[in-house]
Amino acid sequence: MSQLDHERYMQRAIALTSHTPDRPFGAVIVDRVTSGIVAEGWNKSEENALWHGEIDALNSLVKAGRGGAGSSLVLYTTAEPCPMCMAACLWSGIGTVVFGTSIRFLIDIGWRQVDIPAEEVALRSSGFVCDVIGGVLESECNELFLTTSRAAPGR
Fold first, then answer.
1. Which residues form the catalytic set?
2. How many C-beta neighbours within 10 Å does residue 150 have?
């Protein structure tokens, strides 16, 4: 997939943050074969601390009957997946994870985060294959968190 495609789908993930502007974690899952969006999600941690945007999208994927579609799927998310979300992507067979804002950036501006990069989780997980691409529309994603960092320090 080209950089242009990455930007298109990241724009959709950014748009999904309008559902929870104080916690702007949006996620989109795309089938790389058809280029179609197969699931979407956003942060619902006000209801359940585990319900991050990526988890919401993965649950939507299963509800849509696409669970186990595996390596042909690409997950786009406005922020680097935390270790829990990255592990969920691995267990779900997601082939590529693309993110905008980094965990390090979130920590630097005061958001509570577990300081383990998604790529490290992927590399240290035997039997799983998942490419991690960071920094797509990074400045746009960073701006989402900069405008809310004082209001909601935490995921």
1. 54
2. 9
